[in-house]
Design brief:
alpha+beta, elongated, 2 domains, 4 strands, 5 helices, 4-stranded antiparallel β-sheet, Arc Repressor Mutant, subunit A, Alpha-Beta Plaits
Length: 148
């Protein structure tokens, strides 16, 4: 179970994973060493899975952010997942509840590149029953993980 100090540390790390142990220590009233030990414990317990950064796909030329929902035949599910996991244009790949549903987030430079992705990476795969695509217009909030 998390105490209030652990919760505060997790909240601050979700806001800025580069915050120093010293700055966190000042906020929670502990030493930098004690904060490091708490973070190490949270990592070892699997509560913190990874430290990461958020990259602006748009500033790197990926102007199109699209979400796909694929309904696949169960027999082909594992193969389709394996193929899509290897594709650099696939940013997120989730298996969802329902009749074998895959939820995919892709980042591409243009509609032409998206069309090429659909033709070469989706429509060419055996076992896809249905594919629905939605293009992101505007991001209002982006949060990974839990609110603590």
């Amino acid at each position: 179970m998390l105490d209030s100090i652990d919760s505060h540390i997790l909240r601050r790390l979700t806001q800025n994973s580069r915050i120093s142990y010293t700055d966190l220590a000042k906020e929670v009233g502990l030493s930098g060493v004690a904060v490091k030990e708490r973070i190490d414990r949270l990592v070892n317990q699997g509560i913190i899975e990874q430290f990461s950064i958020v990259i602006s796909a748009e500033k790197l030329g990926k102007k199109i952010s699209a979400y796909l929902e694929l309904e696949v035949e169960p027999l082909h599910l594992n193969h389709i997942v394996d193929v899509l996991k290897k594709n650099d244009q696939v940013a997120v790949l989730y298996e969802m509840t329902g009749p074998c549903i895959l939820h995919i987030h892709i980042l591409v430079e243009s509609i032409t590149e998206m069309e090429q992705f659909m033709n070469e990476s989706i429509y060419s795969l055996d076992g896809i029953v249905r594919a629905e695509t939605q293009i992101l217009l505007k991001r209002h909030k982006n949060q990974d993980g839990l609110n603590i």
